[in-house]
Amino acid sequence: MKIDLEAEKKEILKRYRKLLRLAKKSINDLDKKQIRKAFDVALEAHKEMRRKSGEPYIYHPIAVAQIVAEEIGLGTVSIVSALLHDTVEDTEITLEDIDNMFGPKVCLIIDGLTKISGVIDHSDPNYSIQAENFRKMMLSLSDDVRVILVKLADRLHNMRTMEFMPRNKQLKISYETLFIYAPLAHRLGLNSIKTELENLAFQYTEEDLFNEITDKLKEGQKRLTRFINKFSLPIINKLTDKGFDFEIDGRHKSPYSIARKMKDKNVPFEEVYDIFAIRIILKSTPESEKGDCWNTYSIITDMYTPRPDRLRDWISTPKANGYEALHTTVMGPEGRWVEVQIRTQRMHEIGERGLAAHWKYKSTGDDHDSRVDEWIGKIRSLLDSPQNQAIDFIDDIKLNLFSDEIFVFTPAGELKNLPSGATALDFAYDIHSKIGDACIGAKVNHKLVPLNYKIRSGEQLEVLTSKKQRPKPEWLNIVTTAKAKNGIKNGIRRERKLIAKEGKSKYFKIVEALNENNPKLLDELVRHFDLSDAGEFFVRVAEKNIEKGAIKNYLAQREKHKKQAEEKVSTPRKSEITAKSFGKKDVLVLGEDKDQFDYKISPCCNPIPGDEVFGFVTVVDGIKIHKTNCPNAMHLQANFAYRTIKAVWEDKSKSSFLTGLRFTGTDDFGLVSKITNIISEVSELKIKSIKFDADHGVFEGRIMLYVQDTIQLTELSEKLKVVKGIHDIKRIHTN
Ligand code: MN
Predict the structure, then answer these.
(1) Residue 58, SS3?
(2) Structural domains in the chain, sorted by start
(3) 90 included as an active-site residue
(4) Cα of 119 to ligand 1 centre, how many Å?
């Protein structure tokens, strides 16, 4: 077949002009220019492309834009986005181009549309979970609900024109539609689109059942019309009498919902067939619409007996998706139940086209896009609001939880759901703990990112691993999921076990060489080195923190150590008591030497630990502490600079400083061990070095040690003073 390019060109322009006509209500001249520009860009970008049907590709974006304008009722931004929706994914055009030509709003929408083009395989056993995740991803990803609306229009047009697709694609797209897009349309109140999507998908997935139902519906059409007339006539008379302006029509459920009902209730077509609804659409004004609906209800229930349990008042409390109407079921002629839906023209449009129709009635402004923005804001709040628990929305409530979640893809296209704040490392552990343990980074959109990279919805991540990688304790700070945390802890534990095993054999070699192999020794050593268990001890041995020499030293003074350990257990150490009774974590240190002096907190600014402060030496009241930004501070520092003193808060639990004591005395047997015993009683002291020099009965000792404050040092020297043989103790001033 030869393609008539001239005729095609004409047809393209014809379709474009139809789009403009449809959009007309909501656009001005400037908008028109934007739409023309988008049309030109899309036409040029897709010019070599054809659809499966052989038609020019541009027919598709034009049709999507028409759906957006006509069936959803959106404005210029959405129409422009619809025209351009396939350009970034399928042509040379980049997001930057879109941004430059059409601005950030359109760019954001196209970006969103490109991201959610991911695919899910319906033969996957986890398909329904994946579909649910995908839906949630779309909602969380889209800062702009227009992304979803354009996507729905895109899907609707694809479903309408799927006959040239290969069978497997038809099936895949249909399942996706049923699981993802129809529920989304429902969620957004786009009922006519939802129904059409369902029926199209039904037609492809269960062709036989679809044909059976539609044939039977056609057969029964005459009978239905007769019944509806019989039912409606008295209503029409009465409503006309009362001066109502209205339309009335009767309809079956859609083939898809009939099929679902047949399956859910396991009943034949004939039983479902009998259920149908009469719709009464009233022309009314905003002030009287509620009254008009209830008056109509009253007229109908005067004629036909209602089932009291089937009254639904969606007017006083509209459904979360904006649906408003009165529903009732009454006993009609021939003993058949008939559902009657009463609504006004406004409610009807909202019911069919979603909340976009809302603004046609509500707003008087002529800026259509800002009205849509308002609507989008409303949808978002509807989606976010937890109290939208209208009865038949229970299945959708889950969607309200999406805001804390992130949805990302594996390289194979599998969707993963993680809490917000999750990192690349969380993602790696989510795939498998082995992947997490070996993770060295990830690739996001072909870019290398570190382990702590915070992932974002819509991204596709590829985890990079290395055989040499080992889980590390600091990883615990960069993950948020329990799965990752447990994975890391288990990994570390496994690693330590390996190291401990190595240390264990090393230890036994040492003790065998020393001829001291007995289980009691191991217990003693664990206690002596203040470790939690033997595993910990073996790790130290493997890492050479504890070596043969240390064990030998212990053995040399084994009896003494044992006695000490027993004492330690029986009486709480004094330093523990002091630490408890003081309980103050932050201490103030003063001067260049960071010494502790007595001070008072100045009441004028009342500094607390953590504040920037300085000390001021008063004449009668000692040192007073002010904040550096205290109103008095400037005056004091300017006039009495020589009386100010540097002051810093220090975390008592962390800080310790090196200091030393020098003492002299007469050499006495056992003096050295007496001294070390005393030092070990002050548990918070850490000894750096001890040195004793004896010369003809006179000795000099130097102890260098880390203390947390001068109180500790004073406490220690007080204790040492009473030791027999020590004559003089002096502090050694370091640095
Ligand atoms: Mn498309």
Answers:
(1) coil
(2) 5-203 (1.10.3210.10), 213-360 (3.30.460.10), 372-489 (3.10.20.30), 491-570 (no CATH), 574-649 (no CATH), 657-732 (3.30.70.260)
(3) yes
(4) 14
